[in-house]
């Protein structure tokens, strides 16, 4: 497949009138062919209008048809995996195996949502049966289910060119919900984006869906994204990126004449607490695991552990020594973009200049475009005094925080802002002794990890990849796992509707055989009548 | 029980240093004893700090304990029903029977939430079992459930002094979720509010819950409400009131250093579409029902039908004549407050001055403090030209809109902003012929009513009392029915946690016997192991 460098607007190709930009190879700095063209304001409008029109049809597409569509996207992506991985490696400097794995994960994710919408229980069907004899007033027949919000704008992320990009989790969950999607592709990997975009477009076509179900717009700056979020036809947005950009777009979403939900996953330092028993028993293993985790993907994971708390003493000293060895021996890393490269350098230098912070280990950057890993250390008092130390440095760096008392660590936990994850290494005895720590952490994060590492987010039903602000714009949501679909729906209820006018999901006989709550009881019986509780 | 006129701050009484205000009898204009005292900024802080402290305990209170608490509140309210109804009638001019009914509804609502949290399935438990042998990486054990957000501020509504006030739906759902509640009482019915507040406080005490679980603050202006919404310990807000106040508070919630969810139910004109078959067959019955609905509670329901669409012709003329008779024969109404009284007068006069609008019928106001019902009429073209005509007039008035073509009515539906409800009167044949109308309306409202009227919102599992902006601030939510609980929670996930450190709801043996999704399948088996799907 040849790259056109043009936006995908339904079944149409974008124009070449907009500003040109190119992807760059992060390993060499070299600009990659071809030119890509930023979409115009008119093309934003076209994509939004097509999405709006498509919504009228697509929102009434059955679960089975949506499942077929999602599976078709996955198959189309799989067919061009080699090409995606080849281009992706050039654009992101991520290793081939990682991109192969991420492609597989992206396809797994699409298929998991296919399963979900085919099965149907996610719709939260509620049926309350009528009682015409109730006093003082008859009880009506009330039935509700989730319905899609409307066109959704998805912002591709720099750090997951597949799983959080054109056909990533936001797109998969929005399409599964019944919402058309307009992707604003990330300008660091436009070629990878275009390949995936073509795979989605082909699926729209072969499934006979209206063309506006999917568009992919390119843009080098932030005008296109902002214009999309302001468009009256757009009803929600999904974003993974920096706190700065996320907060700007939160503002755009909240200041519209019609404010809309905007789900930004923005930043997180993912605290790790190594409790005394674990530190004594597993120092070596934890040091190796931690190094692997904070340097995975060159430290460019949203879930990278960026601050690590240990109680000072001999065990901490052993652990620190091991960790230093790992860091010093790190191979050079290449970051995703020149902007990230520069900002990593600034972050490292600013941290070095902090009073109370020392560099415990660094590794060599390996040339002009590479960077080294960095391990910083500070004490609890310095940490508590300087909020910057709890901030994210995007790249292969982490901060060890030594503390001397239990109270210090509880105070640190209480003062944490929202994060995606918190990790605890401990023995069962540690956990009992620090149950108050676990209890505090639960109010600060979306996911608690025990004796593991936060990087590597399982795509499953129970996953929560979210967390209180500022980890995300909306702590009530997850952007990974099947519960991500709930971001793009709202409940609608039908009162005293005749059977013939009800959606299939709400009909008496439960023709789709889905789990429904009938008069307060879960059931998936396919009877001519749902379990009718006789009113008392 | 004697009224103290002071805020309830946990188990403490508020001071008498703040500005004084009194309730007024809407029928006579007379100021009612005693004086009530606005809370101070310091008291806002006290209530928020108590709520924050209480959250540490209350969020871990079991479903069974929360159920006991909610039922205790209901019993305490029932014990003083007579006093509540007596005071409520003085403060609101609502009839005794209505306030008795509303008290019963409030208690039913508390008990329905008690049932919900006792049963436990609302927690959306998801369990994905591990697979240590999975390639390329082992699959972790991931379990998630909903957890409460933190202290919630509830704004009492003027028009439902019980069901949407101190112990109304917002309070019941927030307490059920595990969130402490601080109510900003409505200053139009402070006595009713204090009585209910004392009933809640006694329940907190007798259930041995921490005092900060509940506070009730009085305030004549909007400073107290704004200060509460800005307080860093507050994590969500619930509001029923005017669009003006709702939008101001939406802004406060979104502009905080930590933005928080704010659920405002703000305004709605609840369109009614009377289709040709129904107009022919049921003109008399619909006219009587419509009159009853738009004048119910003196037209001060959020769900009052404020615009009614009919196709012009003989049937419409018959219908209109009937409706005119009903309106002309209406007994005088008393509105809730002097502010509402004044604003109804302004609304009526502004509408009278509109070109293309005529008054079809009015009834007599019956004295200085009363108001009459009003029936306006316009045509589709005038309606489409003037957005004001789709706006809410709070009080016993409605607008008939005549149209001549099917296209007009579809265009009107397409251009509707968000409303709480839309109602369709039709035969089954009408419904088939106007299926596109139903389909459009579904994207505009939270509840579709067939051959009925939107007033009278059933408190049940399937109810959706919400709708796209500007009907509410957040169309993904409902403020009535058990699904209202989802506004005050967020999912939290536990990865590879040892059984002993997991919440009861997530433990292997399902000790609480609740519905859970295990490896994608709903089950409530109480086995030593959940249904383990062997990974393929």
Secondary structure layout plus pairing:
The structure is a homodimer of 536-residue chains.
Chain A: E1 8-9, E2 12-13, E3 20-21, E4 36-37, H1 41-58, H2 63-79, H3 81-92, H4 96-119, E5 126-128, E6 142-148, E7 152-155, H5 169-177, E8 181-184, H6 190-206, E9 214-217, H7 223-230, E10 236-240, H8 243-255, E11 262-265, E12 272-274, H9 276-295, E13 307-311, H10 314-328, E14 333-334, H11 338-352, E15 358-362, E16 370-371, E17 374-379, H12 380-385, E18 397-403, H13 406-415, E19 421-425, H14 428-433, H15 435-442, E20 447-450, E21 489-495, E22 516-518, E23 521-523
Parallel strand pairs in A: 5-22, 7-8, 7-10, 8-9, 10-11, 12-13, 12-19, 13-18, 17-18, 19-20
Antiparallel strand pairs in A: 1-2, 1-9, 3-4, 5-6, 6-21, 14-16, 15-17, 22-23
Write a structural description.
Two copies of one chain form a homodimer. With 536 residues, chain A is an alpha/beta fold. Chain A folds into two domains: 10-121 and 140-266 and 479-486, Aldehyde Dehydrogenase, Chain A, domain 1, CATH 3.40.605.10; 272-450, Aldehyde Dehydrogenase, Chain A, domain 2. Chain A is 37% helix and 17% strand. Chain A has 15 helices and 23 strands. Chain A has helices at residues 41-58, 63-79, 81-92, 96-119, 169-177, 190-206, 223-230, 243-255, 276-295, 314-328, 338-352, 380-385, 406-415, 428-433, 435-442, and strands at residues 8-9, 12-13, 20-21, 36-37, 126-128, 142-148, 152-155, 181-184, 214-217, 236-240, 262-265, 272-274, 307-311, 333-334, 358-362, 370-371, 374-379, 397-403, 421-425, 447-450, 489-495, 516-518, 521-523. A seven-stranded mixed sheet of chain A has the order 2-1-9-8-7-10-11, sandwiched between helices. A seven-stranded mixed sheet of chain A has the order 15-17-18-13-12-19-20, sandwiched between helices. In chain A, α2 packs antiparallel against α4 and α2 crosses α6 (190-206). The N and C termini of chain A lie far apart (67 Å). In chain A, 58% of the residues are buried. Residues 530-536 of chain A have low confidence and may be disordered. Chains A and B meet through α4, β5, β6, α14 and α15 of A and α4, β5, β6, α14 and α15 of B.
